[in-house]
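Example for tutorial group B:
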C-alpha cells in the first residue's frame, strides 16, 4: 500500500506539533514508519488520505463500539449543534444521560461528567483522598489511568512504548504518594497496605487491564482487592474507561460481579466525543463541590454535543444488550482463527481475550502482569504490525495495546484478518 500523502502530511505536522501528533500513542515510533492520516471512517473501516481502506481494530481506542459514523450518534450531534454548542449552564440532556448511566451500572447513585478519562481518574482520586482523609494511593504497574501526575508511575502502553516509565515533570513529592503494585498479585498489595497502615486512600485498578495488552484479572484478584479495601477503609476505584459500556452494559462490575466504590468512565460513554465521568454511591459523590468540600469543575463538562453523542450511544447499547454477546462471539472467532494459523506457523505466542478485548503477545508464556507482557518479541510485533497494515488491517502501533472490536465488523472482515495473520506470520 502507498502512504505518500500520509507521509507528506506527517512531515508538515511535525513542524508545528511535537512529534506530529496530539497523543503519543498515535506515533509509529515503536514500529517504525510514519502515522496514517485518516480522511474518513464508516462502520468497520478507516479511509486514509492516500485512498487506502483499512479494517480498524482500534476504533478510536474503544469508543466506536458500534462502528464509525454510527448514524444515530451523527444525527444526534447534528441536531444538537443547531441549537447551540455550549452554554456553561445546565441542560436537561445531562440529567438524561446521568439517569441512564446510573440505571445501567451497578452500585452507583450519582455520576459527574468531565471531558476525558484522565480527568475522570484524577478527580476520582482527589475525591477518594478527600473522603477518606488519607493521602497515598496504590496503582498497578502497567495500568494506565490517564496522564495526570499521580498516575505517571509505570503507566502502561504510551509511557512504556516511549521508554519513559516515570515522566520528568512529576515531582518526587507527588510520586512518593503513589505506591506501585504488581497486577494479579494480592500478596504484593497486602504487603503495601501493611507497610502503610491507615495511610492509603484508594486502590485504583483497571479491572480488566488493557494498557499492557489485554490482561484479564486472575480468579479471586478483584474479590481479594475488594476485601482488603473493605477491611482497611480504603476505597476501591475501578478505572472502567476502557471496559465500561464495552464488556457489559454495567462494565466489569456486572461482568465479574465485584463492586467498586468509585468507577471511572471514558471512551464508549462519549460515543466518540470527548467525555469522561466518575460515579459512586451517594455518600461519596456528595463530597463533591458544590455540595461537599472536594473541588472539581469544567467549563465544557456536560457539553451538549458530547452529551447528545454519549446519550445516544448508551441508549443504543441499553436497548440492544445482545450486542455485547455478538461482540464477544466475533472476538472469540477471531481468537480461534488466529490461534490456529499462528500454531500452524510455529510462532511463539499467547492470545489474551475477554469480551471484545483481545491482544496477541509474541511470547509462549502466560501474560498476567506488566513483567510478562514486556517479554514479548518486539521484532515479531513490528513485522506483524506492518505486515497487517500492508494487508489493509489496522492494529495499534504498539505491542502494549489491546485491540477493540466493533460490532460493525462482519465475519468476512474477520476471515480476511485471519488470512492476513496467516500470511504475515509465515514471514517471522
Ligand atoms: C484511555 C484511558 C484513560 C485515559 O482516558 P483519556 O480520555 O485518554 O484521558 C484512563 N484509563 C484507562 C483505563 C484508559 O484506557
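The residue assignment follows.
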Amino acid at each position: 500500500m502507498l502512504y505518500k500523502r500520509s507521509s507528506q502530511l506527517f512531515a508538515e505536522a511535525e513542524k508545528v506539533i511535537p512529534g506530529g501528533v496530539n497523543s503519543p500513542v498515535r506515533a509509529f515510533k515503536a514500529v517504525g514508519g510514519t502515522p496514517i492520516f485518516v480522511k474518513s471512517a464508516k462502520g468497520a473501516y478507516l479511509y486514509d488520505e492516500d485512498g487506502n481502506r483499512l479494517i480498524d481494530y482500534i476504533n478510536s481506542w474503544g469508543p466506536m463500539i458500534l462502528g464509525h459514523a454510527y448514524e444515530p450518534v451523527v444525527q444526534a450531534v447534528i441536531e444538537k449543534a443547531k441549537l447551540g454548542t455550549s452554554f456553561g449552564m445546565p441542560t436537561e440532556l445531562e440529567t438524561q444521560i446521568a439517569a441512564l448511566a446510573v440505571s445501567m451500572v451497578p452500585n452507583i447513585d450519582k455520576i459527574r461528567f468531565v471531558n476525558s478519562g484522565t480527568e475522570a481518574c484524577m478527580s476520582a482520586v482527589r475525591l477518594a483522598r478527600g473522603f477518606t482523609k488519607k493521602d497515598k494511593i496504590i496503582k498497578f504497574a502497567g495500568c494506565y489511568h490517564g496522564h495526570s501526575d499521580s498516575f505517571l508511575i509505570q503507566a502502561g502502553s504510551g509511557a512504556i512504548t516511549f521508554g519513559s516509565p516515570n515522566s520528568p515533570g512529576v515531582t518526587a513529592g507527588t510520586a512518593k504518594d503513589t505506591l506501585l503494585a504488581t497486577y494479579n498479585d494480592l500478596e504484593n498489595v497486602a504487603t503495601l497496605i501493611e507497610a502503610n497502615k491507615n495511610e492509603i486512600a484508594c486502590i485504583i485498578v483497571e479491572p480488566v487491564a488493557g494498557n499492557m495488552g489485554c490482561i484479564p484479572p486472575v480468579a479471586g484478584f478483584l474479590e481479594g482487592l475488594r476485601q482488603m479495601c473493605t477491611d482497611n477503609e480504603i476505597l476501591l476505584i475501578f478505572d472502567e474507561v476502557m471496559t465500561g459500556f464495552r464488556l457489559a452494559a454495567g462494565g466489569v462490575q456486572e461482568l465479574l460481579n465485584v463492586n467498586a466504590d468509585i468507577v471511572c468512565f471514558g471512551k464508549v460513554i462519549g460515543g466518540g466525543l470527548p467525555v469522561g465521568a466518575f460515579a459512586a454511591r451517594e455518600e461519596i459523590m456528595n463530597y463533591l463541590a458544590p455540595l461537599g468540600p472536594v473541588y472539581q469543575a469544567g467549563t465544557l463538562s456536560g457539553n451538549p454535543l458530547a452529551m447528545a453523542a454519549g446519550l445516544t450511544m448508551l441508549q443504543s447499547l441499553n436497548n440492544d444488550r445482545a450486542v455485547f454477546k455478538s461482540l464477544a462471539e466475533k472476538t472469540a472467532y477471531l481468537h480461534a482463527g488466529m490461534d490456529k494459523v499462528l500454531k500452524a506457523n510455529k510462532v511463539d505466542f499467547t492470545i489474551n481475550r475477554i469480551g471484545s478485548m483481545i491482544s496477541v503477545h509474541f511470547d509462549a508464556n502466560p501474560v498476567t502482569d506488566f513483567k510478562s507482557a514486556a517479554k514479548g518479541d518486539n521484532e515479531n510485533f513490528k513485522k506483524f504490525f506492518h505486515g497487517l497494515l500492508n494487508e489493509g488491517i489496522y492494529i495499534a502501533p504498539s505491542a502494549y495495546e489491546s485491540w477493540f472490536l466493533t460490532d460493525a465488523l462482519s465475519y468476512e472482515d474477520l476471515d480476511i484478518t485471519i488470512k492476513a495473520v496467516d500470511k504475515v506470520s509465515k514471514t517471522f
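The chain has two domains: 4-69+321-425, 71-319. Compare this with the pattern of hydrophobic and polar residues in the output above.
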